Prior knowledge:
The chain is an alpha/beta fold. The protein has helices at 8-11, 24-27, 32-39, 55-66, 80-97, 113-125, 138-141, 144-147, 160-172, 187-197, 201-214, 220-223, 229-236, 248-262, 266-278, 283-298, 304-319, 325-337, 343-358, 373-377, 417-438; strands at 45-48, 69-74, 101-106, 128-134, 151-154, 184-185, 226-227. It folds into 4 domains: 23-154, P-loop containing nucleotide triphosphate hydrolases (Rossmann fold, 3-Layer(aba) Sandwich); 160-236, Orthogonal Bundle (Helicase, Ruva Protein, domain 3); 248-337, Up-down Bundle (Zinc Finger, Delta Prime, domain 3); 360-443, post-AAA+ oligomerization domain-like (Orthogonal Bundle). A 5-stranded parallel sheet has the order 2-3-4-1-5, with helices on both faces. A two-stranded parallel ribbon has the order 6-7. Helix 11 crosses helix 13 and helix 17 (304-319) packs antiparallel against helix 18 (325-337). The longest helix has 22 residues, at 417-438. The model is unreliable at 439-449 (pLDDT under 50).
Amino acid sequence: MNQSLAPLAEQLRPQTLEEFVGQEKLLGKGKILWKLAQQQYLPSLLLWGPPGTGKTTLAKILARNSGADFVFFSAVLSGVKEIRQIVSQAQERKETENKGTLLFVDEIHRFNKGQQDAFLPHVESGLLTLIGATTENPSFHVIAPLLSRCRVLVLERLRDQDLFGILKRALADETNGLGSRRLKIDDDAAGHLVKMADGDARRLLNSLEISANLIDPADQEHTAGTITLATVEEAIQRRSLHYDHDGEEHYNLISALHKSLRDSDPDGALYWLVRMIASGEEPLYLARRLIRFASEDIGNADPQALNVALNARDSFHTLGSPEGDLALAQATLYLATAPKSNAIYAAYNKVLRDIKETGSLPVPMHIRNSPTRLMKEIGYGTGYKYAHDDQHALVDQVHLPEELAGTTYYEPTNRGYEAVVRDRLTKWREILRRRKPQNPSDDKGDRSP
């Protein structure tokens, strides 16, 4: 093994595109990065992907391939002052060596607007070729002028087969890897390392390095230097799931939860709920989303759903985690298996649309409040029919503004309790329809169509 103090992941960093593992959609023959490498041309890029997928490595390889000078810049540790120094050095390099500068900005999503504005003109002029690396959706964090001048390339989490290949190379490489130690690894241990890496090559190699160092040299005579499942479990201790509370992955996971609920898949819904809790999501945020779902996607198909969601929120508030997590799980499974209807959500949006289009339409005179004599004299409340005076508690009078009279917003489905509501409304409308020709005098003052 190389005696360098650098971590194993750094020692094994690929130096050429041929050594690079994964990202075939970008590096495969005829794909964008393959073509750019062939042409030795490099535009400004934003590399967006999960940790450990090779963003920094790709930037270094592309810089070397294009002949540009590679400058590493940390969005966390550096500021505008350092940007000015880099610009000055880039100008000198261009004038004296006729050589370009590739500025690699790690964690570019952490740059504030002032920092991004500082190097924007130099990217526009071509003095700097920018490659930004981010684990967050760049459209959330990168200013529009800079985003428009960069090509966004999406890197995917590494596949298990990619990680197994990296693991095999690390154990065999005698120059930069662990090959000189002649270590072996059980299949179960290798599988566990790959599983726990969760698509992250850096995490895989870090865990492998710790596992290798846990093997007592004195024991190697008896075990032939074998990394076992027990060794790996001791090295890893616990899994740290990839999750960003304010960025892309947050919205992906909550979308997966909501859509699993909507599609009545209790297994999928429970998985995404627990996945978010295990990743550190605020449980009360999840409780609020369940409450929203109960009205948006179930509504009156099961009116009890809203109570279940509210009770789950209150239960978690009382118990906390982990005891209260089960209340959220119970509510999730109830909502997933409840009959579904978005009739309330659709009706609400229709009303909102009409309000935006028609503005503040006046309340019909007959259903206005008339607490004073003046109001009564000018017609407030005139013609109002009191529903409880009718044997069915039904009256045929308009309750919408005149311009919207006759509009139907709420259309119950035939699922769950909403089927009862639908049947009830149908019967009521039929009663009112039959009354019109029989009691035409009752229609005086009626504004319905």
